[in-house]
Amino acid sequence: MQDRKSLMICALVSFTIGAAVANSVKADSPAPAYVISEIEVTNPEGYAKEYVPLATKALAQSGQQRLVSGGKALALSGAPPAGRIVVSKFESWEQAQAAYSSPAYLEARKIGDRYGKLRIFAVEGLGTH
After folding, report:
1. What percent of the chain has pLDDT over 90?
2. Phi and psi dihedrals of 107, rounded to 5?
């Protein structure tokens, strides 16, 4: 009987310690950052052939997870978006800023600016802390 009690107490203590460690790790995780791009494409051919491949490569190398790329958009309130919408996720605010200020993306952006008007902004996601 004493061995069962000891085993139960040991299991309870282990579970409590494991839960505390897991909660601590979660609390230290940075909040993700979401980048929303609203693009009014003025030259679809140039945009698709010259800008998109370079920008896609540069941002993928910076840790971008593309969640939305074009597709249908519906205005639920206010004016509809002006053209193409891209939504990306990054592990942190700093990672998003680094991606869009990287030399590779800045070079791609010079080309993109010739083929459209880009409005790009980041928002901090809900973190676990």
Report:
1. 67
2. -65, -45
